[in-house]
Amino acid sequence: MMRARGTSVLVAAVVVGCCAQLFAADSSLEDLVPRLIQIARSARGEVGVSLFHVESGAQLFSFHGNEPFAMASVYKLPIAFELLAQIAEHRLTFDQAVTIGATDIRACCTLSRHYPNGGVTLTLRELLDVMIVESDNTAGDVVLKAVGGPAAVDHRLKALGFRTIHVNRYEGAIAFDMMGVVDPPPPSEWTLATQRELIRNVELHDLLRARARYTTDPRDTATPDDMAAFLLKLQRGELLPRQYTDLLLDLLSRVKTGAQRLKNRLPPETVVAHKTGTTAVVINDVGLITLPNNGGHLAMAVFVMNGGSVAAMQKVISDLGAAVYESFTGKALPPPQRKATPVRRLATAARKGSSPRP
Question: In the chain, what are the domains?
Answer without folding.
Answer: 7-69+220-348 (3.40.710.10), 73-217 (3.40.710.10)
